[in-house]
Amino acid sequence: MNTQQLRELASGRDPGKAAACTCLAAQSAAWESITDDRWPAGLEQVGSLRDPAIDGPTFEELHPNGTRYGSPDAPIAIGWFPFNRCDVYRCSRCSTAFLRYTEYGGYYVDHRVRMVSPALIVEP
What is the number of structural domains in the chain? Predict the structure, then answer.
């Protein structure tokens, strides 16, 4: 999925339905850890931001305005970490778009999710 496709998907959100939707647990502007048992029913994987031609995507982040990884207003830049390792999901009820990736540490696996705001999607 490219930048324009992600922007179009994220623009389809129905705010009226999203306020009471079952995907509410995942509706965070910043990256949140979410376990499989909290993963909302109705979220369908609709694509990926991973580039299949790149075996080892970069761990470099893009923060031109001084944001940080956990900032709710951090830009969403497909070629940069962690977005280059994300799958894209959409809620079947309210059409909210989400990004999900898995952080692997020495002894843990941490699934993280972030709601997609079209205004934060950038193409550097």
Answer: 1
